Prior knowledge:
By secondary structure, the protein is of the alpha/beta class. It has a single domain, classed as TIM Barrel (Alpha-Beta Barrel), CATH 3.20.20.70. The protein is built from twelve helices and eight strands. The chain has helices at residues 16-30, 46-53, 79-84, 95-101, 105-118, 130-134, 138-149, 155-158, 179-196, 199-204, 218-222, 240-245, and strands at residues 5-9, 36-40, 58-62, 89-92, 121-126, 162-165, 206-210, 229-232. The protein has an eight-stranded parallel beta barrel, surrounded by four helices. The two termini are 13 Å apart. 1,3-dihydroxyacetonephosphate binds at residues 9, 94, 166, 171-172, 210-213, 231-235.
Amino acid sequence: MRKKIIAGNWKMNCTPAQAEALCRKLLPLCEGAQADVVFCVPSVDIPAVTKVLAGSSIAVGAQNMYFEEKGAFTGEISADMLLELGVKYVIFGHSERREYFGETDEMVNRKVKKALSVGLLPIVCCGETLAQREAGIAVEWIRMQVKLALQGICAQDAEKITIAYEPIWAIGTGKTATAQQAQEICGAIRQVLSEIYDQEAAQTMRIQYGGSVNGKNAAELFAMPDIDGGLVGGASLKEEFAVIAHSE
Ligand code: 13P
């Protein structure tokens, strides 16, 4: 039985002081959730957030990380830096990073490998555009994204990875995929995982849905057989996130 994982992706929101206040508000509301709950916060907010969450059941995640060890990579943040701050999860390949910051499948793959090598747990995003969905190539596109992200990663390591299916047309638009649409793709992701690895690895790995998840639709989405929780944007900044964290 896979444990659900419900992660908030705060994106570029909250100064450290605001992050601390939001954590203080959300922590008591989220504690006691059956799922693994993660706050993926801006890098500069990590110290403030880890201080508030210390000793709680809520984990801290980052939204990005570079694959090199250290050195002349101005503006980048290394795996060791995140690790030392107490970070547990890192999001890779979010569609916003792919679109605005040129993150390629190859970079995602290198970042995932680096994170795994130090014990950070990757959340790897994939998802199709509306045009791809309408052209009937969503499944093929996502199969390719997943295969490229996992290239050269063994089953034992892959089991530490969470895949987040986030249809781009559903992100921040208020247009959620129906539970059936989300299940169809998450089922296809589990199928490709069983082809890359085997049934055992595919059944162990967790697959989230993301895209306009809210307090009203979360329970129906998370009840689908291949949806093991959610990656939540807008609603993760509100008390509503606690409702989502308890939805299963
Ligand atoms: P919204 O929940 O705001 O649609 O964002 C989803 C997302 O991108 C989470 O990573």
